[in-house]
Fold this protein.
Amino acid sequence: MRIGIIGAGAMASALGGGWATAGHEVRIGARSADSARALASEVDAIGGAGSDADRASRPVVDVRPATISAAIAFAEVVLFAVPVSALTELLTTHGAELAGKIVIDCTNAFLPDESAPDGVTAFVLSEDAVAERIAAAAPKAHVVKAFNLLAAEVWAGADRVFDGVRLAVPICGDDAAAVQTVARLAEDLALRPFTAGGLHRARYLEATSVFTVGLWFAGLDARAMLPPLSAAFAVADA
Ligand SMILES: NC(=O)c1ccc[n+]([C@@H]2O[C@H](COP(=O)([O-])OP(=O)(O)OC[C@H]3O[C@@H](n4cnc5c(N)ncnc54)[C@H](OP(=O)(O)O)[C@@H]3O)[C@@H](O)[C@H]2O)c1
């Protein structure tokens, strides 16, 4: 699949590296040509890592730097891996270029929580429905929210199964084919996709992110809040 990544930071590296390893063609589109080149080289190296035998068993890695417009034009799937503060400018300039593309929104509108006690790291959201805003600004794109819940280090890491449970990626979007495509891209990263409803539900993923990150920064294990499926009351009777 042809993937265009907009942004050249931590998420671009983590997800781009995984997709390059899985054999997808990746273009890194950044506002600075130097950043695009540097990140493309990093992602190319991730995609090409491993032994000779590993590499021989995988498709040839194809990762290149690009302008933002060229990365979008190349792509079937575009990943927005930029700060939320960049979206207005990005969508104003490039929104029309996204027509017909699947756009993965992994962004979170985090701001420091000014009410947190001194020395405590916590965040609030500067807005509560970023994915819906992207969809409104690029109405001909198929916007899908995914990969916003966990740190780039987790996506870049090798661990995928914790306490016997494969790490899941909730995915929200209105276009069923786009959601399925993103689900396959999650599987390509050895993750388990959870299709989690329409784009109107993406705001809950955004809220979940800021809430769980607050718990983790407080040293609390967010996972401990949730019982296994078999003990959850909301399960429909079989
Ligand atoms: N990092 C995480 O653990 C994590 C986890 C989940 C979700 N997210 C979300 O993912 C998104 C990206 O995070 P990140 O950690 O990858 O950020 P990052 O490392 O700071 O990288 C952000 C990238 O966006 C580019 N950028 C900034 N303003 C731009 C603009 N106006 N136009 C085009 N490009 C612009 C930056 O380019 P320059 O280099 O030119 O500044 C940089 O390449 C954010 O919305 C974040 O909330 C992050």
Q: What stands out?
A: The pocket of NAP is lined by residues 7-12, 30-32, 35, 81-84, 86, 89-90, 106-108, 110, 148, 151-152 (CB under 6 Å). The chain is about 35% helix and 20% strand. The longest strand covers residues 168-173. The mean pLDDT is 95.
